Amino acid sequence: MYRALRGKTIFITGASRGIGKAIALRAAQDGANIVIAAKTAEPNPKLPGTIYTAAKEIEAAGGKCLPCIVDIRYEDQVRKAVQAAVDKFGGIDVLVNNASAINLTGTLETGMKKYDLMMSINGRGTYLCSHVCLPYLLKSKNPHILNISPPLSMKSKWFKNHVAYTKAKYGMSMCALGMSEEFKSEGVAVNCLWPKTMIYTAAVANLMGGESSRSYSRKPDVMSDAAYIILCKDSRSYTGNFAIDEEVLKKNGVTDMDQYAYVPGNRLQLDFFLDLDEKELDLGASGSGGVGPDRVFQQIKGALNKELVSGVGGVFQFNLTGKDGGSWYVDLKNGSGSVGKGAASDPQCILTMDSEDFIKMFAGELKSTAAYMAGKLKIKGNMGLAMKLEKLTERTKSKNASVCTVEAAGGKCLPCIVDICYEDQVRKAVQDAVDKFGGIDVLVNNASAISLTGTLETGMKKYDLLNNINGRGTYLCSRVCLPHLLKSKNPHILNISLPLNMNSKWFKDHVAHTFSKYGMSMCALGMAKEFKSEGVAVNCLWPKKGIYTAAVAYIGGDGAIKHCRKPEIMSDAAYVILTKDSRSYTGNFAVDEEVLKQNGVTDMDHYAHVPGNRLAPCRFLEPDPDGTDIESLGVGGPDRVFQQIKGALSKELVSEVGSVLQFNVTGKDGGSWYVDLKNGSGSVGKGAASDPQCILTMNSEDFIKMFAGELKSTAAYMAGKLKIKGNMGLAMKLEKLTERTKSKL
Known about the structure:
With 745 residues, the chain is an alpha/beta fold. Helices cover 39% and strands 15% of the residues. The chain is built from 28 helices and 21 strands.
């Protein structure tokens, strides 16, 4: 029998148990080399299995195994494990990013410690492992990266109630979306795999509070069999896919899905993040969006803390009737609280209601007092404690310039030195604002970091900076301000971030930056839904054209100003949004020009630095079909351009630039050319450079426009027309070369 994975080295994170171990065992049957990268070296009473017990099972199944104690939050541990794998097995052919952290709690209940844990394991850990493994995967004959993560559905329901978890999990999927495009030409397949139904594992049992979920779940084998099929495919022909286990199996001739069920014939629980027809949801389809009582008690468990216990001080027993009924207890009297299935030993309050009404109550669709008055909630015992139930439902309900300039303009100003990477600094600034002004009505999340570099060029220090400021900083500031915003009459959060466009071109070549920036937008998508009933508006605003600021000048030089607008267009659009009724305008991804036009502003030219000039489109927005963006007039072929470049060379230019550039020009009359602006008086030639510091790739028509002065190199880069690999600082000096040659063309 042909064994496709025989001798292949497979690096799997989180493979000491569950889905990761199942994938390892399936590959081991082919005689694969398995590297287990996981934290569990000692057995845990709640989560049985270690990397060593898993290694024995893998070798018994026919594979070779290298167990490595690895916490994927730490780069040194990942690099050590990868090097150990290469030393032992000679390379790496497959990376399975399986390790994950989950916490299904709302924004106010998810502190930064939990947020950081999920982001550092899910999104960052996946990026880190991919970043470190890629140099070896590039040497493999059939390299695969498989992320155990969901399809990217931008429906707010998947963010509502657990923005942090969804952002973290989607980070894994965005890595695949971008890297699949980035490394497609090198033949590295990057795909995602997600279960259609709940998969029962020890971790799920622990999270769900018992083994009850087993009856409506499948075994991990359904995922391992699907993963095996994907990893055996030709990496050059199967990449960039968001696969579902059942669909993969059915397409490959597997028709008996019942074999994967723990209880064949039982209805199955649909997993998170899948937009399937209601009739496909086999268990818990009634009530609030398919959430069963078990899932609600899981959310209650995640919301417990000493503060809540102190505020309530009682033990509740819930007797639920109807579909999926049963008894559960919630201890809000002892320690930090607890939740469990079954009757409480000494309940102060027993509450009886139908399971559908129970779900609605904890979904915020039915107040507990209203349920009681309508006879839907029966209470036995301490009525005073029962009235404190609101505290629990509120915690868990599934809500489906400088000071002188500001004051001279007529406002009051409080300047605060804040690095939004640090929670203590944010909390101090917010408290100072409340002390001085009495509250907070509006939060504008504008701070941002940018680095448009590829996966191999973006180290973890740069990755962390991007994510700590953009995604995490936005979440942190929102979380700290929200208790005060909830007291405002017209509260707004406005994130200066972009529409969520899942086209891979916006991820390719700068996965880290796009994910971090989209993190701001995902905060808005989820929080808008989460806090809609409280009247907190959460929106995004993004410019249609390039905005010239000091930061833009730093990246691209003063030349960009001719093709940009002033920041006032964004401030005018923001003003329009922030003066709207917060209850009627929320969850929008607004574009500055569109906001202004909808409010009667027709003259956009007064926002341009040079009225009448063609404008550079802003990144992440599709270019105008009406021709208002920078366009081509044509000046001849690439060869002629390089002739003109050659005539413009001088020692002065070499001294100013000091690098060797390689141009890979695609399309009509394409090819490779080098421009040596490092040695002697410079030189130009056809073919690849021997040691380029910077490689620039673009279409021949855009290349000609750029050197004709019709398209700024910075604008080309921001519009995705110019791809840069290597020294970004040197690439930014390209303006010096184009300025020298455009008059001749």
